[in-house]
Amino acid sequence: MDSEGVDVPVGCFHCEDAPCALVCPVRAIARNRETDAILIDSDVCIGCKQCITICPFAAIHVDIEKRIVYKCDLCQGEPECVKWCFTGALQYTATPEKSLDFKRRQTALLIGRATQTTRKLVP
Ligand code: SF4
Ligand code: SF4
Ligand code: SF4
């Protein structure tokens, strides 16, 4: 939490067909071609929070003061969390095809579950 000065990495999968980018009404979310990261343009974001609702990994957060949202931006291609991880558990590498398939299936599964839950809540 910002107020307590505690920093933790919150993973964004930088999804291939990023649902957060698809739902953004003002196209504030897009992929950076150099780093392959999905980024939020804070100058364009209107703080509607639709991206938060759709993200299956809870990777987007609200900046209460600025009234916009933010998330992992891969630190412009040089992830600080990887540098600071003293056990080497975090690594920044090209995504193997096998891992990409896994991400696709997991994302589809989570979005499917979220859609079912929404249908149950809305009569
Ligand atoms: S914020 Fe969520 S939906 Fe968007 S790219 Fe990251 S993990 Fe995927
Ligand atoms: S909160 Fe910002 S980035 Fe997210 S969907 Fe709304 S305008 Fe787009
Ligand atoms: S890459 Fe940067 S923004 Fe993303 S989780 Fe790691 S430290 Fe945070």
Describe what you observe in this structure.
With 123 residues, the protein is an alpha+beta fold. It has four helices and four strands, in the order αββαββαα. Strands 1-2 form a two-stranded antiparallel ribbon. It has a two-stranded antiparallel sheet with strand order 3-4. It is globular. The N and C termini lie far apart (36 Å). The structure holds iron/sulfur cluster (3 copies). One iron/sulfur cluster is lined by residues 12-15, 18-20, 38, 55, 57, 59-60, 71.
Please outline the helices and strands:
Elements: H1 19-23, E1 29-31, E2 38-40, H2 50-54, E3 61-63, E4 68-70, H3 80-84, H4 97-121
Antiparallel strand pairs: 1-2, 3-4
The site of one iron/sulfur cluster (SF4) has 13 residues, from α1.
Secondary-structure-derived class:
alpha+beta
**Strands across the major sheet, in which order?**
1-2
The low-pLDDT segments are none
Percent strand equals: 5-15%
Distance between the termini: 36 Å
Total beta strand runs: 4
The molecules bound to the chains, other than polymers, are:
iron/sulfur cluster
Shape by Cα distribution: globular
